[in-house]
Every structure is written in structure tokens, then in C-alpha cells.
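Input record (one chain):
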Amino acid sequence: MVARVRDDLQDTDSQNYRWTDGEVQSAILRVVAEYSLHAPIEEQDDIATADCDRELDISTLTGLLEVESVEFPIGESPKYMQHFEHWAGHLYMEDYGDGTDARVRWLKKHTLTAESTSIPAEHEEIIVLGATGYLAMSASAATVDRAFIAGRYGTTGYRAWGMERLKRYDTRLRQVARGNRVIGRQLYMEE
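The corresponding structure, as predicted from the sequence alone:
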């Protein structure tokens, strides 16, 4: 991803980089975090309840953004969804556990490392757009009061290009946002 961002920035001369690897990686991580909020990974885990306890141990849910639902007991028809509270890393159900599993549906942050990524290939361009936009805007700010080969046009050029990239990034984020999808939900009434 760093190489793709550098290609878009035309910053490929390793002897004379405009942005350090740390700056590029930081911009990428910022965009991955923003992307995760718009298009998180949907996960489901069965977690054991404790006898006579309302709290579920969710410490194994790494990268947790939000808990969507808790089904307990599992296998009821219609499904029995718990009212729950998620606060300060703890999850509390309305009903007491009995030692069996509760099904927790949750949203997870994306990861991006040199070895692997959870970001779909068709969305990688979103990451590049955002990272290049942020880096161009930072270059614009950094060159405002400095002598620059391109003169005053260099600063405004970075700014205009960065704003255009960020506008496209924002549009793409909104297109893939989870909030834009129709998610079926049903309410169940106690009889």
C-alpha cells in the first residue's frame, strides 16, 4: 500500500522522498481507521455465559467497534434477542446466564499490514485516495512559509490536488458505508 500511495504521489525516488515512510504509513493507518467506521467487518461469535451472571466476557473480540446484537438463549424461534449494555469494555445482558453460549454479532476494525489485509481488493483505491489526499494537504500546509521550487503555485497545487482527492475519497466512503445499506430488522413482542 505504501508503494501504491507513493506512485500516486509521484514520490518514488527513494534517495529523495518528499514524505517519510512514517508519514505515509500514518496517513494510511488514519484512512484505514476511517474506512473501518464506514465499512466495518461483520463478525459473529458464540461466547459462554456464566451461571447467574449477566456479564459476558468479550475480551477476545479484538478490534471491536460496536456490538450489534446478543442472542441468548441460542436456537429459539423466533430468535430471543437480549437487551444489553456495552460500557467500558464490558457487555451486560438483561437476563442471567446459565452456562450455555450467547451469540454476539459485532463490528470489527479492518487491519492492513505488510503481510495481509482485511480490506477487499475493490476498496483498496479508497485507501489510496484518502492517504494521498491527506498527505497532499499536509504538504500544502508545510510549504506555506517556505521557499519552494514551484513558488506559491506549489502550495496551492498541493492544496487543490489534495482537496480533489479527499472529495473523491469522501464520495467513495459514503458509497460503501454500512449506513447506506438496508439491514433487515424485526421487533419481537413478548406474548
